[in-house]
Amino acid sequence: MARPDRSPLRRLLRSVTLGGGILLVVAAIALAALRADDPVPRFDARRGTVAGATLDSVTIEDGHLVQPVRVVSSSGLAVDLLVKRPLGDARAPLVLILGGHNTGRDAARLIPDTRGRAVVALSYPYAGPHKLKGLAVVPHIPAIRRALLDTPPAIALALDWLVQQPWVDTTRIDGVGASLGTPFMTVAAARDPRIGRLWSVHGAGDTRALLAHNARRYVPSLLLPPAAGVADILVAGPYLTPEKWIAAVAPRPVVMLNATEDEKLPRAAVETLYEAAAAPKRLVWMPGRHVGRNRPEIVRPLVATVLAMMDSIPVPAAATP
């Protein structure tokens, strides 16, 4: 039996092409035109300053301290984190992770042994429903777009709080974008020199091509290009597609790890992102399919490889943004 598609982004693409017809396409384009402004000033305004943080109870898992945290900005933006760090309060290198939207901050739990690092995973700042069908997605298009545009400032806000914590080594910060997280972590790293290295794990560039590639199973081929184009505009792809940002990460290292049999990322889109990065950069191909929390046989070697590479690649000194 085919696995149900729960992604709001993919359901958005489906609604553009199925059931709504020309009316929905026209409405989507009109909405996109109203929203298609430069997001950079918005990033700074939404980041604001840390207004407060709510820390839930600490538990011990895999010999680490684990704690959910919600950080709130003066702008009203809120980001949910899960901290997994070594026992005690000694300063530890920080690994900030943004993965798929379904995994969210629970991505920190996919790393049983942090090898002495403080691992912090983020959830996307989207509070709407995830199980949307057909035209039901239309009322939620503005919220989906706002959440995507809020994600880079949410990463910056999380860092603003984290660098104030006594257990964080602020000179050793890695930003990891996994799958859907790659574009947003790339934007954040390009704008924030506190991130000493950028890691893209099963990520790629060219958001329009990615949308089209992942919609080809349920969208007629003739409708696929215009549908992907409309969906790309709606999700702010022209602004957030990572190949437009990644060169600004230099001279900090960029490391990409990708799968040779990835069913969600066309190789051309991976190469687009890698070619856009400036040196120093590295692309590592590993066997297997796309990463997912339900694929432990893929997650485990990926985690081990990333952590081992973090030990072997120098981290530039962090800077003040």
Q: What do these coordinates show?
A:
- The protein has 321 residues and is an alpha/beta fold.
- Helix content is 36%, strand content 21%.
- The chain contains 10 helices and 10 strands.
- It has helices at residues 8-17, 21-35, 40-47, 141-162, 181-191, 207-215, 224-234, 237-240, 267-276, 296-312; strands spanning 50-55, 59-61, 64-73, 78-86, 92-98, 118-122, 168-178, 197-201, 254-259, 281-286.
- Strands 1, 2, 3, 4, 5, 6, 7, 8, 9 and 10 form a 10-stranded mixed beta sheet that branches.
- The protein is globular, with a radius of gyration of 19 Å.
- The relative contact order is 0.14.
Strands, count = 10
Distance between the termini: 49 Å
Which stretches are poorly predicted, pLDDT < 50 over at least 5 residues?
Answer: 1-5, 16-23
- What's the tally of helices? 10
Structural class: alpha/beta
- Global outline: globular
Beta-strand content estimate = 15-25%
What is the helix content? 25-40%
Helix-strand blueprint:
Blueprint: H1 8-17, H2 21-35, H3 40-47, E1 50-55, E2 59-61, E3 64-73, E4 78-86, E5 92-98, E6 118-122, H4 141-162, E7 168-178, H5 181-191, E8 197-201, H6 207-215, H7 224-234, H8 237-240, E9 254-259, H9 267-276, E10 281-286, H10 296-312
Parallel strand pairs: 5-6, 5-7, 7-8, 8-9, 9-10
Antiparallel strand pairs: 1-3, 2-3, 3-4, 4-6
Helix pairs in contact: 1-7, 2-7, 3-4, 4-5, 6-7
